[in-house]
Amino acid sequence: MEDFPKVFCGWSWEENKLFELALAVVDEQDPHRWEVVAAMVGGTKSAEDVQKHYVILLEDLQFIESGKLDHKLAEFQPSVHVDCTQSVCWTDEDNKCC
């Protein structure tokens, strides 16, 4: 995942996955929600960072659900073909981010 774009406000692939997991398990009503989510991301992001990241995620979802996303762009993007007959084993090296 070394080529994972850091256009997500400087967030790595691993941080994004931890963020998604934290959102799934931390109660929205928890008064310390953003502090808990920040801790679950690995401690490199502040509560303010994760809250801002959440707002960006919501804005992205609204844009996608609004129908304004041009799905025709996908036709011009190179696609990756994966041989699903072979198992994939991830190594620590594969999980290192930029």
From TrEMBL:
Taxonomic superkingdom: Eukaryota
Protein name (database record): SANT domain-containing protein
